Amino acid sequence: MLGLAGCSSSGSSGGGSTSAGAVASGVASSTDTVAASSPTGTQIVISDFTFAPSALTVSPGQTVTVVNHDSSTHTVTAGDKSFDTGDIAPGKSGSFTAPTKPGSYPYICTIHQFMHGTLTVR
Ligand SMILES: [Cu+2]
């Protein structure tokens, strides 16, 4: 464990474990296609240092919107740099273009490298 968390500028608010935003926003209540472990769509939402969905399937070359609902700046950056939103400030959104080559593309937030997700192109 290297102490990479150098961003001490973001004020230590101390872990206030507010149970405010229960993420139970009933995402998949549709009864038809339940089995999809990697939902299709064009949007990734960041909140509480988590990408949602953590695995997303998109079409080749599709524009994917990334919405940052967190209180910290984040990025969505492919491990092979094939896509990158750059910094997305809190409350802002960004976008990137999915690779045109089908495959599985792990990505991270370059600021918080423990944050990771997977984009699947097919
Ligand atoms: Cu981040």
Please tell me the CATH architecture of one domain by its name: Sandwich
**Structure classification:** mainly beta
Q: What's the level 1 CATH class of one domain?
A: Mainly Beta
Mean pLDDT: 81
Would you give the CATH topology of one domain?
A: Immunoglobulin-like
Number of strands: 8
Low-confidence stretches: 5-35
Shape: globular
Radius of gyration of CA atoms, rounded to a whole number: 15 Å
- Share of helix among residues? under 10%
Bound molecule kinds, no repeats: copper (II) ion
* Beta-strand residue fraction: 25-35%
Biggest beta sheet attributes? 4 strands, mixed
Please identify which CATH superfamily of one domain we are dealing with.
Cupredoxins -  blue copper proteins
Distance between the termini: 35 Å
Which sequence of SSEs, written as H and E, runs from N to C? EEEEEEEE
Number of helices: 0
Strand order of the largest sheet: 2-1-4-6
Task: Explain the overall architecture.
With 122 residues, this protein is mostly beta strands. It has a domain of 85 residues: Cupredoxins -  blue copper proteins (Immunoglobulin-like, Sandwich). The protein is 0% helix and 30% strand. It contains no helices and eight strands. The strands form two sheets. It has a four-stranded mixed sheet, with no helix packed on it. The protein has a four-stranded mixed sheet with strand order 3-8-7-5, with no helix packed on it. A hairpin with a 2-residue loop joins strand 1 and strand 2. About 25% of the residues have low confidence. The structure holds copper (II) ion (CU). The site of copper (II) ion has 6 residues, from loops.
